[in-house]
């Protein structure tokens, strides 16, 4: 079965990142108006965890800690490795910071989660611990991170600025 993994980002044209589970580890970028595949790449790891659109790139998080930033032409712009024992489980482009944000899950350290910020060259700018939750979602602008516990965190400092349950 195939599935559209992400449709969020800041692109001018409607485009979709597609993970083709029928073909194993292939993923690609499709132009929804032209009804055409723009490119297809095979993941190095056994699975793709998350992906996000930026201004002119797509950030892809693969299992085993590989993060790759691809141009809209499918060319590798940069790649980054998470610390050992961690995967980037959520990713987003942060418009105001012109940078990538993500949630690192340290699967060998129990409930530890970190919010990371990577610049446009793939350099780690910051890494801060955040409250543990089973799931998170970035807002469309990437400036806030919301946990399934109702916590709203600011990006990039990870400070809890509001909790739904407090109301």
Estimate the helix proportion, in percent. Answer: under 10%
Largest sheet: 4 strands, antiparallel
The tally of beta strands, per DSSP, is 16
Instruction: Identify the quaternary structure here.
Output: single chain
What characteristic shape results from the CA principal axes? globular
* Contiguous runs where pLDDT drops below 50 for at least 5 residues: 1-11
CA radius of gyration is 16 Å
Series of H and E elements? EEEEEEEEEEEEEEEE
**How many helix segments?**
0
Rounded average pLDDT:
85
Class by alpha and beta content: mainly beta
Estimated share of beta-strand residues: over 45%
**What topology, given as strand order, has the largest sheet?**
1-2-3-4
- What is the straight-line distance between the termini? 41 Å
């Amino acid at each position: 079965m195939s599935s559209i993994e992400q449709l969020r980002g800041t692109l001018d044209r409607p485009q979709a990142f597609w993970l083709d589970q029928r073909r194993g580890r292939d993923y690609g970028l499709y132009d929804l108006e032209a009804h055409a595949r723009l490119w297809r790449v095979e993941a190095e790891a056994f699975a793709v965890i998350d992906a996000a659109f930026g201004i002119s790139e797509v950030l892809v998080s693969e299992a085993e800690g590989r993060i790759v930033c691809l141009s809209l032409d499918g060319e590798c712009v940069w790649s980054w490795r998470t610390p050992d024992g961690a995967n980037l489980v959520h990713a987003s482009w942060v418009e105001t910071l012109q940078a990538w944000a993500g949630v690192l899950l340290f699967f060998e350290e129990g409930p530890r989660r970190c919010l990371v910020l990577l610049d446009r060259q793939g350099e780690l700018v910051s890494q801060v611990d955040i409250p543990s939750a089973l799931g998170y979602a970035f807002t469309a602008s990437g400036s806030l991170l919301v946990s399934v516990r109702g916590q709203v965190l600011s990006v990039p400092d990870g400070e809890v600025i509001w909790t739904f349950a407090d109301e």
